[in-house]
Every structure is written in structure tokens, then in C-alpha cells.
Description:
By secondary structure, chain A is an alpha/beta fold. Chain A has helices at residues 2-10, 17-25, 27-31, 46-63, 77-87, 100-107, 183-186, 188-196, 206-217, 230-239, 249-257, 287-297, 300-310, 325-331, 342-347, 349-361, and strands at 37-43, 66-72, 95-99, 131-133, 139-154, 177-180, 223-227, 244-248, 262-265, 272-280. By secondary structure, chain B is an all-alpha fold.
Amino acid sequence: MSDIFNNKIGRRAVLAGGIAGASMLAMPAVLRAQDKSLKVGVYGGYFKDSFDKNIFADFTKTTGIAVESVAEPTGEAWLVQLEQAAKAGAAPADVSMMSQVSMLKGQSTNLWTPLDLAKIPNAKNLIDRFVNKYPDGKIAGIGAVSWYITLVSNTDVVKEAPTSWAAMWEKDKEDKLGLLALVSNSFLLEVTAKTFMGGTNALDTEEGIVKALEKLAELKPNVRLWYRDEAQFEQALKSGEIPMGQYYHDVTGLAAADGNPVRSTFPKEGGIQDSGCWALSRASKKTEEAHTFINYMCQPAIQATLSRKVGTAPTIKRDLLDLTAEEFAAVSSDIEPIIPRYDLYQTKSDFLNQKWTEMIAG
Amino acid sequence: MRREPPQRLGDYGPLFFPAGMLTLFFVVPFATMIAVSFFQREQGGFYTPAFVLDNYARFLSLFFGKVLGFSLFLAVAVAIACVAVGVPFTYLLARSARKTQIAWLVALLSILSLSEVMIGFAWSTLFSRTAGITNLFVWLGLMSQAQALTPSFGAVMTAMTYQAFPYTVLVLYPALVRLDPTLAEAARTLGASPVKAFFTVVVPALRNTILATLIMVFIFALGSYLLPQLLGRPQHWTLSVLITDQAIYQSNMPFAAAMAVFLVLVSLALVGLAVYAGRQKEAK
């Protein structure tokens, strides 16, 4: 169990060095390849291993298209690599799983080949917000998986489960919180806006953003750790060293199942739902295979398998899935989620980053 | 063997390899970084080749000034702490039995095999409330309640000093072993206490070595970005942390490059100043 768990941490914190090794390991898949093949980029570590085992093998069996999975780093490093490669006419991966901010940044240079929905009939299963569109309405990407960041706490120290994100602001939480360190991965502006300002629309103006930042600044005395490294917070949460904070719902669930005194709570304002899209690099020549692949991934049965085996939340409608209530609760919630304002991280990224850094480090 | 000055081009041959390596792995990347620092940042995209000063302009603010100031202060503090502990330690080590020396040097060398990540996590556990050294103090009756010593400036300083200490000893060791023991003995015969002999004879005799060690640890500490993150509060984050944020998370290469160039220039200037000051003193 602990091995699986450690790998899970690795999926969003991939070492670039792993890529070379990982792609070499993926080579046997190519040797078995029929004439049709596809290179698919997924986050390295647990994610990639899990996809290789539970998804890609069956996909090749069903469609005859061999998959070579490529471990991609998180952050925007992969976007930069895809962009540089596309300029040179190369595609390190045909289809890649991309974060929402990366999708928008890629759109600005037309990095993504527009997808043809006629060739992806299963796309009708998707929840609308998981279809990523160019400003002119062309489809840039299709939702692959999603995951939640929720309010987590140590059950030994925090006896009663918190019910609202506002619990983080309470006086008795002094020096007790662990929060993500970056404006673009913590989504705390959205949390503040939804909790105290009536919704994320409050962030439409710079005044609104500044107000949210001021409210967030009140949190500073309560924050013991602003983390970039997930393992660091997870360890502290399990031991009770830092008894509360924001963290990934799926990983916390696994830790609890493993007997650790931790819980993940969907606050009444909703958990933060982040997601990854399948996107096709414009340098790829495997357009047909890519559409087949994306269509395959949008099937309810595959999405259910992902939830059960990989621990991700589905991107398609709940009523199409055969997940039991328990299985669904393990990865998601019916409470309306907080959807990050990805547009802001593209149009106002430098402003947000500057103000945020000044807020926490100032 | 008498060394003749090189006569023909071929005599410079042995120099071509290191020069080529230096060009390939230092000059080219550094020049690229300087070039990128003048490029135009495209918000929500990447960057385009241009010649703009915006990246440097953004850096010239009170906020970044403070961060730069703190980074330099931290590096200087670590350098001084390392030398303050390292010189007496190495002095005693150089005078101890051969076996003791070997044991210590092997132990110190093995610290070098630890990555920054491991050092950071180890210290954060040692400084934690739930499993840290304060529990030991409580057990000994020195404290009434276990408490967390991290995140704090002290935690960052301790871990960084720990990390740089083996380098300090390794640089000081040869000079201290070669140091003529009769110097200190002469001072003792003339009536100086061991401590006085150490400060009035040994330390001045090692002035250049100590200066070189200070500079080396300073440069080494300036690049640290993991330990301040793991063990410090946001106000203890160094400029290197912010450079990493810009380069990796914001894909703002031009700004990251501009900050890095600035950091290199400031540290070069400080090193130059230290060397110059050292020479001036020697000339007197």
C-alpha cells in the first residue's frame, strides 16, 4: 500500500530525469505495435503506471492502435517542450493530458489541433465545462480526468470535521494550516471569493482581486506552511504537526484508508475542482488515431474504471456512470464545486503572481 | 624539468579541451540566459526575441530589493557561521591522531552524498513538534512542552550551515595540515595562552584560506532554494525560490533570466570587493 501511495505523490511532482527512463520502458509497447500507433503524454509516476496497466492495454486490444505512453512533467514545462518541438515540426507526444492554464496558453499560439466532434460521438457524455474551446468555438481539448482539492484535517487534533472554508480563518487555527504556495495551483483566490464575496465573479475586476487578497492576508498568521512539495504537507498532516489545510481529496482518502488519522471534507462552498484535458499537438500526424483515442476515453465504462483504479473524478455526467454512491464519494461530491478562474491565470498572470508573492512573502 | 613558454600553436593543444568545455557548458548557456533576459514576455503565452528592459525594470522594486537583500544576508550569515565553526574544528582535527582524522573526514564526506531534499526533510523532522528534538528536552526536564522549531530563520540557517560545513572543512583542511606547528609553539613559549595563540598566530596565517572559504560558502549558499522553502516562512524565501517560481510555474523565462543575471552580477561584485579588500590589507 505504501508504495502505491508514494507513487501517487509522484504523479504531480515528477522529476524530469524520470522521463528518459520512463519512455525507454515504454518502448516494448512500440515493438508490438501494429501499423497504427499513438504517443500519449500523461503525468509521470503513479498516473502513467496506472494508465499503462488499466487503460492503454485494453485500448490497444479494442482498437488495434498501439500506445506509447510518455511521462510528462507537471507545471508548464511540458507545454514549453511541446511548443518548442512543434515549432521544429516534431511532436514528443501526439495527444497529451494538459492542465487548463496550459490549454489556454497553448491556444494563444494555436498549438492544439482543433478536434472534430463528429469523430468523437462520446463527447456528448461530457459535462459541458470539460470541453475546452478556442475563442472562435473550435474544440481545443476534451476533458480527460478531474480531481478535487478539499479542506483536509487531522482527526486526532481537529475533533469535529470543519464544514466551511471559513474555518481556516478562525482564531484558534493560528499556525495550524498548510496551504499550496502558488496562486496558480492553490486557487485560494477563488475559495475566498466563493466563501466571502458571493462567487468567483467577484474576481472579474482588479479591485475584486485586491479585496480577495486582503481577505487572504488575514490568513497569514494561521499558515504554518506554504508548500510546493506535496509530500511535505502530507507527512505533517498525518502526524498532526500541521492539522489542517488544503490537499487532494483522492490522496487523502487513500491515506485515511491506510489507517492514518486524516479526513477530507467537501466544504459547503464546494471543493476546488481542477482537471486535465486531452489535446492534440499541431505537429502530430496521427489525427485519426487521436480522435479514436479521445472518443474511447469518453466512454462511461472507461471513466468509471479511471475512478476506481486511478482515483480521478469523472469528466462525464454522473447518471451515465455505474459507480456506486460509495465509489463516487471516494473521488467526487454532489456539492457544486469551485471552478478555478483559469482565464485569469492567462490574462492577468503576472499581476496575480506579483500581488500574491507580495502578499505571502511581504 | 624546465618549462618552456609555448612556441607554436600546437603547444597550446592541451588547453583546447578545457576551453571548449568551458565555452560549451558555461559561456554558451550564460550568454543564452543574458539574451533571454532582454526578450519580450508574452503574458499567457511564451516569449518573443526582442530587446526590452521591462524584465529588469520589474525587478527594480522595493519588494525584490528586500528579497535580494535577504538572500545576500543569508548567504553571508551561512558563510560566517561555517567558518566560525569550521576553522577551530579543522584546527583541532588537523592536530588529532591519524585515525580520528580519517573517521571525521569519512563522516563529513558522507554528508556530501545526501541530497538537499533529504537534508531538508531530516531537519524538518528534527525540528518538528511531534517527533523533534524538543521532545528530548522535555524528557530531560529542560522544557515543559514540546514545540515546533520550524519554520523559522534558525531552522534555515542550521540546515544550510550543516549542508555547507563539509565543503568548509575540506577547503580548510589542507592549509591547516600544512600549517607549521612551530608557529603556535613559538607563541606559546612567548607566553600566549592556546586561545590567544590561535587567534593571533593561526588565524592571521590562514587569512587568505579563510577568505577563500568564505567566498566559496557564500556562493554555494546563494544558490540554495530548497532548504529555505522547506524550513522557512515565506519571508525567508531566497531570490532563487522566486526565480524557480517564474521559470517553472509561470513560464516567464525572460523575468527569471533577468533575476538570475542580477543575482550573478551582484554576487560577482561582492566577491570582487572581498578579494580587493583582502589584497589591500595584504599590501599594507
